[in-house]
Amino acid sequence: MWNIKGIAASAGIAIGQITHIQEGSYDFCSVVDREQAPKEKERFLAAQQAAEIELDVLQKRMAVNVGEEQAEVFAAHKLMINDPSLVDVVLNNIENNFASAEAAVEDAVKDIAAMFIALDNEYMRERASDIKDVGKRLVRVLQGVAEQVNYTGILAAQDLLPSDTASIDLNCVAGFITALGGKTSHSSILARAAGIPAVVGIGSVLEKLNNGDTVIVDGHNGQILVNPEETVLEEYRQRMKKEQVRAAALAAVGHLPSVTMDGHPIELACNIGTPNDMEKVIAAGAEGVGLFRTEFLFLDKTSVPTEEEQVESYKAVLAAMPKNKIVIRTLDAGGDKQLPFIGGLTEANPALGLRAIRLCMVYQDVFKTQLRALLRASVVGNLHIMFPMIATVDELVSAKALLKEAADELTREGIPYRTDIAVGIMIEVPAAAVIADVLAEEVDFFSIGTNDLVQYTMAADRMNEHVAWLSDYFQPPVIRLIGNVAKAAQKCGKWVGMCGEMAGDPLATPLLVGLGLTELSMNGRAVPVVKHRVRQLTLKQTQEWAEHILTLRTGSDIKKKLEEIAEAFEI
Amino acid sequence: MELNLQIQNQAGLHARPAAIFSQKASSFKSNIMILKDGKNANAKSIISVMGLGVKKGETILVKIDGPDAAEASAELQKIVAEKFGEE
Fold first, then answer.
1. ipTM score here?
2. Which residue ranges make up each domain of chain B?
3. What is the CATH number of domain B2-85?
4. Minimum-distance CB partner of A302 among B22, B45, B86
5. Per the CB 3.0–4.6 Å rule, which of A118, A329, A419, A496 could disulfide with A489?
């Protein structure tokens, strides 16, 4: 038996056999005999047709499982597969150089990808991965290998791309292991959303795992045990059994209220990305929405969504839970989420660049349209508007002024809206956390976004596995900032919530309650777990713990203390 | 036949407009080429059209050669003028 240490990306224990996701390295001759060339052309044309059928199926499946919009990527792949720039080059290469169909495809794809990468536009450069994906598909079909969709056991891969995940049946997968990525990379988020244990960022040691090796994936502490002895296996089987008992207990928590033992309510809400997610929010037993990301309306669109279009979406969310609090975050674009209709902006450091509220204050017409749409939608529910990335009082004041302007316009036009809408901000820039006392005077609420707050406080890119250990919300500077924000808000009589990853981590719950947070917004799956924990706490006890934790010196001390606290609870 | 077209839509010849342009071009028998900054592209290929990286406000030279050149010219001019149905 040997161990691998990685990043714990999705909790739980999985035992199974390793299956490497095929990276598609095939052996084939690069040239064929002259008389074989016409046959190669035929093989290519047949592969083209077969690949197109695969893409049809994938597109339909993705549309059903995820959404029409995500499925459109496969429509683009179909266009590429029939494109003369690919097809003519491949056929010419076969005819003139007697290249094998596989080699001709690989050559053509390499050239096209290089052309896209050379473009000075991030969005267009990304198309290189699309053409590579198309090339891989063609080569695999040429090799007569069916698309592997029935992966089972523990999947091992360099990284999982959105297009990979479309073809995997998550019900058959026990666990994930990836070489790249951190807690917030696509594969980690997917694993958590699906409740599949995952360890990521293990690096090149991935290659030492063989197909069929028995492994234990311990998603709690980021450990992988390879070919363990029977005694170890038995120990982990027992732990898995315990977790199942725990899961049953959590199911029982269901729709019970989220209150501490001494009667203090801790509101549990969900983070959502589209109106379709509302079903899950209700099913999870959450009390509302703590973060509705509105980017889906804007990204992958070549034009600004109309006011009407936006009103429809906002109303759909508000009307699904008309009495409950719904926090809608205004457009958080820029940075790694480029808006096609604004055009590529070349920034050396996009995470520190023109994004979120900063971008919105430059494109005020786009922003005002969103604010008008939000105000108009407010009549059907309990809307809270939240501005992202606020760093200064000035930004907040001008955003509020624009909101007022939008409201005045509607008044003049005789269009109804609610006048009692709560306005708050995300606290995700350390600057805002430091001046929370002055910001608190200008808002109705704060919501702490831990993903960015950690990244900016620790100066560590959360996608960079070389500094992944710094991307840790238990680091004392992060905890102190959270404490500072909570104290400042309480002084002003405003409520503080949290909508980052940390909010859904039951280990953090006693600390967050103790620091004074009264709302936690998370992935639907985390709601019963956190609720179960809340119902075992007393506010007074958590306050004592929080006070003690604020004096601890290292992230690992804090985590250790929280683990001690967690262990004291039965399940 | 040659025509100069200025691309007016926000996103330039991004994926969607490039797809529309190449699909429209493919519906004609004529040979249709796009020239820009010394690069040339087969207008019937979405990959080639995207590969030009045409941005908003830039002008492309379109060369059309074939039996339905006049018709193709009119149609392509029209979709560019309509900004590919975008704002």
1. 0.79
2. 2-85
3. 3.30.1340.10
4. B86
5. A496
